Hints:
Blueprint: H1 2-20, E1 26-28, E2 46-49, E3 53-54, E4 62-68, E5 71-80, H2 84-99, E6 104-106, E7 116-128, E8 136-147, E9 154-166, H3 172-194
Parallel strand pairs: 1-5, 2-6, 2-7, 3-7, 4-7
Antiparallel strand pairs: 4-5, 7-8, 8-9
Amino acid sequence: MKHLWLIVLVAMAGCVDLKASYPDRRFYTLEATRSGSARVAPLGSILRVKRFTATRLSEGSELVSRNGDAVYDSDFYNVFFVPPALQVTEQTQRWLGGSSLFEHVVGTGSSIPETHVLDGNLIALHGDQRHPQAPAAVLEAQFMLVNVSVDPSAVLFQKTYRRQIPLMKDNPESIVLGLSDGLAGILAALEEDLSKVDRTPGR
């Protein structure tokens, strides 16, 4: 009986030590801050930014790293506080709202009738660790602007953007900061491209 209790106590001690060795989960957010002057919006233009979709590789909340040409790993202990596609949607809405490319920029939940709709798809969002001496953060997204104030609706613009940001350090925080830089670069390019599109309602 003594031997049985000794085994139980050793097992319990082992479990306690194992749990104590687990790291805490850390949560991250993406942030892209726009700078620069506002543009001129066509009268009556209202853009609705729909909630973006994501590929299977980019839809999860856990941070993803690419370790081989066809090898990807997810990190249970380092995760996005909000699913990445939703974060990119919110950052895009905020960025374009500050750009004044449209008189108003609203989200999916708004009851205001829109003249234009922006669809987006998050294609890639990961840290690239295939080359240990040159880690990078990779973000790729596709956008489509649709004029819904005409019948039938017309696609005005569609383009895929990709940014690969070199990292000084190969750790989760550096990857997220690199992804935020990549998102800012993509949104700046998107804004510039949309400024060249005729956004007048009814045309």
